[in-house]
Amino acid sequence: MSTWTLAYDSFIPEQEGLREALTSTGNGYFCTRGACEWADAGAVHYPGTYMHGGFNRATTLMAGRPVVNEDFVNFPNWLPLRLSIGGDEPLSLSNAELLDYRHEYDIRHALVRRTLRLRDRQGRETTIASRRFVSMAEQHLAALEWTITAENWSGPVEVLSALDGRVENRGVARYGDLVSRHLNRVDEATCGTDCISLLVQTRQSRIYVAEAARTHVYGEHEVVQVDRKNLELQGYIQEVLAFEVEEKCPVRVEKMVSFFSSRDNAISEPLINAHEAVRRFGTFAETLDRHEYAWDQLWARADVEIPKDEHVQRLVRFHICHLLQVCSPFTTDMDAGVPARGLNGEAYRGHVFWDELYIYPFITFRLPDVTRELLMYRYRRLRKARQAALDHGYKGAMYPWQSGSDGSEETQVVHLNPKSGRWDPDLSHNQRHVNAAIFYNIWEYFQSTNDLEFLWDHGAEMMLEIARFWASITHFNEERGRYEIHGIMGPDEFHETVYGSNKHGLPNNAYTNVMVAWISQIAQKVLDLLPEGRRDALCGTIGLGEDEIAKWREMSTKMFVPIHDDGVISQFEGYEDLEDLDWEAYRSKYDDIHRMDRILKAEGDTPDKYKVAKQADTLMLWYLFSDAKVARLLETLGYQRFPDMERKNIDYYEHRTSHGSTLSLIVHADLEAGLDPETSWDRFVTALESDVGDIQGGTTKEGIHMGVMAGTIDLLQRGYLGVDISGDALCFNPKPIDKLDGLKLPMQFRQAHLEVELRDGKLTVTALPGGIRRSLKIGYKDEMCEIKAGESRTFTL
Question: Which of 209, 224, 468, 530 is 20 to 30 A off residue 19, Cα-Cα?
Fold first, then answer.
């Protein structure tokens, strides 16, 4: 199998949901799941189309209590295409024998192909070969082609082509008790003799979405003349095309679709623009050529070559393909963040979490303009973050754990435990570390791009307001002489309260406290980077006083960190006093113990009682910073440097972590890269296979996991190549991973376009022509040099 192809050679109903998510096709504006064109939503199939920023709120009464959720809306299904022979009911897998089947995904061009050969009840054999894509060249275009071959018969057929706005949000079973209808029908119409259109509006957010479809039939050399009949229902419109086919003579059906919304720029009105666009679109072949060319240009900036392992190569490219379908050049006009589950499912309701921390690095080193605009999503919601802080009695900006349309806190207040069937309280909104992640992302973007304009106009304001939030949530412990933070949750997520206490949140999460010390340092640097006039104006605008800046200086040296005598950092204060879990007993009792929180709660117990973590928490410090940097941060706080501190903490938490999130595999693989390369590689491959193999037992069909997909690719550059930015130099420290011999990838650093290659024990960095206006600093371990456009530097490992 090609490293550019993902394929399935049999139809397995229980696997269709997963395959539909994996073979979605999108362009950073909208995306459609890889469902069969002839299938309605049901137990086997789930067609879904999603748009960046397409949210709607709905209220569900649960036991008389109103529960409000903002959902990622499933917009009208543009796929429906069905074939009827001789007036019989349309062909489907329920009324015909499947003789041959192949479902294939072209990774290079995000193109879905299906070929199936059917025998109906009259013994007629028919082959249908379909191809479809959402265009990376034309933001508003989707295209679908059927090639129909009558294998052993001739006669009349009808092709039904429809747009269906009667869809609901039914893609996540555990949300089944919640309101699922988000669309109101507005208009169904024909536009000309060969087009149909549909206009809907979200019920609360009032977003208009219009789709128009043009369906034509072609013989070998000519357009086939067809008889057309239209049918309009509320929220649904179809046309039926009747024509004759001859045995062994293929005919092609092309369905060209336009998709517009009232959130778009430079439009008159969605339906008008949808009509205009669908008329001007070319043929399927013409639009496919442009689509493929656009993808080829993206791959020139994003491909990662791993020649020694075809399986790894295929999955790495597959992950890049999905990442680019969510974060593409079209995304820059969308006022959008990155949904944690991409644009091809309804899990997490399309909300934006801290997963950006894992997603931005790969994008920033290739498409920095996209990262810049994704960060602007946070800037445009700064007002909401300020209000949230104020409502809780804090200063600055407090960003939500889950963000959607306007930056309000969208975290649900109850969560369905599938192990018990009960709705339990959800306290995950206390994960304030999302603020630290946003601060870190802005700083990393600036380090990579040196985009002073963004820092001056937008980034600094966000960073300073986040630093103010942390200063206001801390309190000074006079007895310890240190600053502390109580009442929050760390990345672990299993621990919500101190065991035996009714207080929400935890005291002194180590990851958070160290990050706050670092933020307090960097915030002062940010002020120094601002021109004096800009600094004075910004400080005046947000009311930042010298007393707050002085507190940052103290916090950078006096944050409390719970550290054991042997150098192990306690996840939070009191963690070391919790009980150890009997892991073997639970492994023998349950097939899957990744979600120990659900298991324990279903048993009437609580994870708050045990040393058990869903995912990396304390270890996130070594994921974001080098071992030397962590040591310097702790020394600045007045804590001693312990020998082998990273190794000790890895060993301590490895045996207490269930890896209930695949993000945890990324962190552990990264940390082991230089310490235990074989273990690191095993973790890396497991993370690569996590969505394709659906290792979490059915979650991927609800939407791919953007964090792990992007994290695996970033692991190659930051974990295995050891990419780091030191001052104004791009530095490398490759890890001894034999399987990566021949690794080659492009990068962009401060306007310089680079090609990086590992081969035969040597690292070669080439500055491609153009881009660099002056020399660029490149580092390998402690060795530094300068490189100019057209030059290469080779380092012996």
Answer: 209
**Structure-derived torsion over alpha carbons of residues 360, 362, 365, 371, reported in degrees to the nearest 10:** -30
Q: Which two tokens stand for residue 22?
A: 């994996």
Residue 177 is predicted with a pLDDT of 86
DSSP-assigned letters across all residues of 619-672: THHHHHS-HHHHHHHHHHTTPPPPTTHHHHHHHHHHTTB---STHHHHHHHHHH
Condensed to tens digits (0 to 9), the pLDDT of residues 517-534 reads 999 999 999 999 999 999
Length of the chain: 797
| CA 283, 286, 290, 296 torsion-angle sign | positive
Q: What's the CA gap between 10 and 101, in Å, rounded?
A: 6
CA distance 736 to 754: 22
Instruction: Return the active site residues.
Output: 493
What DSSP designation does 719 have?
I
d(CA 20, CA 16): 6
Closest alpha carbon to 398 in 433, 373, 441, 352: 433
Chain CA centroid to CA 544, Å: 35
Look at the pTM and tell me if it is higher than 0.85: yes
Q: 110 and 100 in contact (C-beta within 8 Å)?
A: no
- Kindly list the distances between the CA atom of residue 748 and the CA atoms of 366, 465, 485, in Å, as whole numbers in the listed order: 5, 29, 38
Cα gap 57→410, rounded to integer Å: 10
CA–CA gap between residue 725 and residue 525 (Å, rounded):
16
Indicate whether 500 pLDDT > 90. no
Query: What angle is formed at CA 328 by the lines to CA 325 and CA 331, rounded to 5 degrees?
Result: 110
